[in-house]
Specification:
The protein is an alpha/beta fold. It is built from 17 helices and 12 strands.
Length: about 375
């Protein structure tokens, strides 16, 4: 009945009952998965068990980051995204250096194409990202501005982008990665020039531009309680107390098999404290990288990582989406960012499912959540 998977990852019997109001009904209704089914598609067989369909039991949105060039040029990549996921996140085409490479000259064409793709396939869009310390245009970082001028430039860019996509974005990552590992503020371009108030200002500007979009703070290594996640919690708690229009916290979920990671209960407990502030949570960039070459043991450990993050989300009532940062090893940022590492995604280079995919599919098939926000 697959109950062993939940018990093996350290989830308690009480927690399982939280996952499904009537566990027996959930197990009986869950489709048995003897192994992923496939259908022929040219030279590559596509997985025929769409995660978006399995996720309907839990009313959770399942998404992926999308490389715009591959979406445009590769049929298998495009068809898999259309079939498998219910949300999409742009990898790069909504970032500042792409949207406004020259001051005052904004180009939304690539973002528009992704939004139209999502609309045509019944998908929601996570906008990524309005304010970040990286991928900023040189005209901005090399310019000389007073704090008031820079604050105006930041707000103007936010408002122009969020206004352009108004009504088309479900969640915006408004501010990304503003905290260091030790819980101090990152000494970023924004912090050095504007101080910590740039975060509240960014959320207020985004809300004015698109009042209906859910506005998220997004960061990595905050999956469970640690100095960084504690600092993020203190920061967003202060924002909430100040009436800043923040709606949620995005927990990226970039795991590495070289380092230990917590089980689903610890992740859920961490998410719960953000929920107690009245905020939504989401896993926004999940992947589990490993030293190459991959082998069966590493792939099983990878599956445990994906499952822990997903179960942690499913245990948290206001965790509303689970997004992987790329779904196939054929298109992954990991080998370029981490020397000697890779194989971080749910499908391999040939779009074939790995143990991580099977774990995610099984967990989704087992769980029914009710009254999802």
């Amino acid at each position: 009945m697959k109950l062993e998977r939940f018990l093996a990852t350290g989830i308690s019997a009480a927690a399982i009952l939280l996952l499904a109001p009537t566990l027996v009904d959930a197990l009986d209704a869950a489709p048995m998965l003897p192994g992923p089914r496939h259908e022929q598609h040219g030279a590559i067989r596509l997985v025929a068990q769409p995660l978006r369909e399995l996720a309907q039991r839990s009313e959770l949105r399942i998404g992926t980051a999308v490389d715009a060039q591959s979406l445009q040029n590769e049929t298998t990549y495009r068809d898999t995204i259309a079939k498998m996921f219910s949300t999409v996140t742009p990898e790069n085409v909504m970032k500042w250096d792409t949207v406004e490479p020259v001051q005052g000259q904004l180009d939304f064409s690539a973002g528009d194409q992704l939004v139209e793709f999502a609309r045509s396939h019944g998908q929601l869009v996570r906008g990524h990202v309005l304010v970040w310390h990286s991928q900023l245009p040189s005209w901005l970082t090399s310019g000389t501005y007073t704090p008031d001028e820079l604050r105006q430039i930041m707000c103007q860019h936010i408002q122009q982008e969020a206004t352009h996509f108004r009504g088309k974005i479900w969640q915006w990552d408004v501010v990304n990665e503003a905290m260091e590992e030790d819980g101090t503020m990152r000494q970023s371009f924004w912090f050095k020039n504007l101080g910590p108030t740039f975060i509240a200002d960014a959320f207020r500007c985004a809300h004015r531009a698109d009042p209906k979009a859910l506005l998220f703070y997004n960061d990595y290594n905050i999956e469970w309680s640690n100095p960084k996640s504690d600092a993020v919690y203190a920061m967003v708690k202060q924002l909430v107390s100040q009436g800043v229009p923040i709606d949620g916290v995005g927990i990226q979920g970039h795991l590495d098999l070289q380092y230990p990671f917590s089980g689903p209960v610890s992740i859920a407990q961490n998410m719960q404290r953000f929920q107690d502030l009245g905020l939504f949570t989401a896993v926004t960039e999940a992947d589990v990288r490993m030293m190459l070459p991959a082998d069966d043991l590493k792939l099983e450990a990878q599956a445990a990582g994906y499952s822990a993050m997903l179960q942690g989300c499913l245990l948290t009532e206001r965790c509303i989406s689970f997004t992987v940062w790329g779904f196939t090893d054929a298109h992954s940022w990991v080998p370029y960012a981490f020397s000697g590492q890779g194989a971080a995604n749910l499908l391999d280079e040939n779009y074939q499912p790995k143990a991580g995919y099977e774990a995610v599919a099984t967990d989704l098939a087992l769980v029914k959540r009710e009254h999802q926000p």
